[in-house]
Amino acid sequence: MKTARRHDIDWLRVITIALLLIYHIAIIFQPWAMFVGFIRSEQPLEGLWTPMSMLNVWRIPILFFVSGMGLFFAMRKRNWKQLIGERARRILLPLLFGIVAIAPLHMFIFQKFYKLPLGYYPHMGHLWFLGNIFVYVLLFLPIFYVLKHREAGRFKQVLNRIMSNPAGPLFISLFFMLEAILVKPQIYSLYAETWHGFFLGALAFFFGYLFVYSGQHFWDTVKKWRWGYLALGLVLYAVRYLEFDLEAPGYLMALESNCWIFGVFGLGYRYLNKPSELLRYLSQAAYPVYIIHMFVMYLGGLLILPLKMHPVLQFVGITLFTFAVCYLLYEFLIRRIWFLRPLFGLKGKLKEQTPTKVLASES
User: Of the four, 3, 132, 186, 300, which is 20 to 30 A from 149 by CA?
Assistant: First the structure.
């Protein structure tokens, strides 16, 4: 079955991963950075956290939504055996390699920065996201294949009616609000290796698939009502900032998160659904950059933080260092060395190719 390539979703994945890098760099300049396993600047920039706190409720959930969308496209041309094999190659292999060879690198730098005894142990670190995605693929695949073969069924008709209404996406938010009520996360934006992160990610992955499965209905709705969703997200953020010192009840943060995400999807569909050579390159690079960014960022902090500079200049310096080194490593090592490519989720041979519509493994 042929499907149109969705350039806007590719762009959103690229942009969201870039925002994730900036978010992680901002943590370095918070007084509590060391307590979450980050190196810490002795010159904090606590003002950075105000915009970051707006980002932190949707930065990870949107990647889970996009990953579910990616599975929809991957299923169009693969049976279940082919799909599991392809997801294992694109997700599981980079995860296992990352656990033993990539994630420990930033722990070495952390130990060196704080003058701790050097020690090695394999761990997932920031690659926990890939583990979750692979579990979701196995968990939801039977349901998705049933839906795939019943595209003219009553369920899709009901889904289309729901998604045609501006309240439809907000209705979906009830599931996320219920998750927050039942799981009771102490910190809503703490997703890594928590039950909250697992269940929220599962919901986002599942509904990401359904949003694309519903066809044009969801996209027309978020495009038309994008400013309304963003306005509601802004109001909820203002309430969180003014009344709850940035940590509102989880059900309000869940609703805020989805409002931002639906607004962003609407903006992307309206303005970004067009091809470009830049997108083709960045779409291929996004996944490897995500895998390596933590140890590159820590290395940048190790080199730049001891310099006598204003902390704003340090933040800019680490940001430029992280992006530049990540893309240099991608361009001259990961992309060009054939046996490294599969370890970072790329196809084994280097050739000019259009980006896959949306790859869940590249999120």
Answer: 132
